[in-house]
Amino acid sequence: MTDPKNKPGRFKNAARSLRQALFLATACGGLLSSVHAANNEDIFFKLADLCKKEKIGGEFDDAVLEKVRGEKYPSPKTGGFTIDSVEPSWTPTSIFLNGSCLVKGKIHSTSQYRLDPKVKDLWNKGVPDINFELYIPSQWNGKLIQFGGGLFSWPSSVMGSKTAETENYALLMSDAGNTQPLLPFLPNITGFGMAGLVKGANDINDIPQQELATNFGGNSIKKSLDVGVTLVKKITGKTPEAKYFVGFSTGGRQALKAIESWPDAYDGVVSGAPSVYLTRMIKRVGHSHWEEFDTDKFGGVLGGLILGTLKWSDPSATQALGKALGWAVQSISQAAIDSGADKDNAIDKLMNAMEPVWNVKPGAVENFLNTPTNSGKKKKRVILYQGTQDIVVPCTQTGKFVRDSANYVRSKNDEETVKRMGDSTRVYFINGFNHGFFPVTADGGLGDLSWNYISALDQWVHDDNAKPKAPRNSFNPAGNIPTTEELKTWGCSPNDFQ
Question: Is residue 465 part of a domain?
Answer without folding.
Answer: no
